[in-house]
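Consider what follows.

. . .
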Amino acid sequence: MENMEIERKFLVKYMPNIQGCQKFYIKQGYISTNPVLRIRQINEKYIFTFKGKGDIQRQEIEKEINKEEFDNLWLKIEGEPIIKTRYIILLDNNLKAELDIYEGNLKGFKNVEVEFNSIKEAYDFNPPDWFGEDITKNLKYTNAYLSKISSLNNK
């Protein structure tokens, strides 16, 4: 499925209440970071993704794959796998915050993303108090970049 992804990404100033929030286990790896070719496991679902260039807006093409395809592609990933738990937190105006808490070599790192229907909506967004610095345009916080470092101390 092809779509134009419009999102902003932030660091987390403090943890919101996540009790009762929907959550997902995510394991992902990058076959290439230029162009971005990612494989991702979300619970028991497997997805192959191409991401175009850009920061707040970029093309994204996703294709669901089976576990065997995922396992074969996993052998070809570059760098470190990204392992995280994602919590879905409902915000005003029918928006959803995707709070990611990382494991493995990025243990303890947290960020939050919000997807929008338009660029205007993205720029007009007033983040909740628990959102920290806006890192949307900072390439050092993309998962593709984070997969290339061995720990947060090296970024």
